[in-house]
Amino acid sequence: MDFGLPERRKLSGGKLVVASHNAGKVREIRALLEPRGFDVVSAGELDLPEPDETGLTYIANAELKARAAAQGSGFPALADDSGLAVEALAGAPGIYSARAGGPGRDFALAMERVNIALEARIAETGDDNRRARFICALSLGWPDGRCETFEGIVKGALVWPPRGDKGFGYDPVFVADGETLTFGEMDQARKHAMSHRADAFQQLTAACLQP
Question: I need a labelling partner for 159 at 20 to 30 A (CA). Which of 134, 140, 191, 198 fits?
């Protein structure tokens, strides 16, 4: 039945800009895209400026970054906005996950700040709730401003102290449901298969990427 929903715009191969200057994030997205025949280049490699993330949601920020990179490069661009939402902290740090590490985006500092806030909340309430989820919005943008956007989630819990030196961001303190290793300890191919980014990418692939 046709409900009047717009058809998703498709993309098949060619140059695609990853709208990020984060080397870890670019590495993960490149690993997902290159097997599908895309020539992947990052916004950092093209010396594109990083736009201010003024959106109030993951989706708004992902679309803002995708449009900026697509219009700045003249090629389709894929942008990610992701973060850690801690249940006991009312979803914080959320869209401010990277900024929790200060101007230098120091994730060791960010993880420590989140843990201090979480421990204070647990002491205050007596509820040892360490539930958290990673959220990722992926937006595929074109130079004409069109965007197709998808949101993925992986649920789990936080641990302390951090464990493992793989991955990036908050990976060393996050254990996905059903797992015993943190994302920082886990083989990265296994992480990529279950992550919030993989969830969003699977949705994008089904809707927009030509086989």
Answer: 198
- List the chain pLDDT tens, one digit each, 211 residues: 444 556 888 888 789 999 988 888 888 888 888 888 899 999 999 999 989 889 999 999 999 999 999 999 999 999 999 999 999 999 999 999 999 999 888 999 999 999 999 999 999 999 999 999 999 999 999 999 999 999 999 999 999 999 999 988 999 999 999 999 999 999 988 998 899 988 999 999 899 986 6
Instruction: Supply the residues annotated as catalytic.
Output: 81
Length of the chain: 211
Q: Are strands 147-158 and 38-42 parallel, antiparallel or unpaired?
A: unpaired
Among left, alpha and beta (phi > 0; psi -120 to 50; other), residue 10 is beta
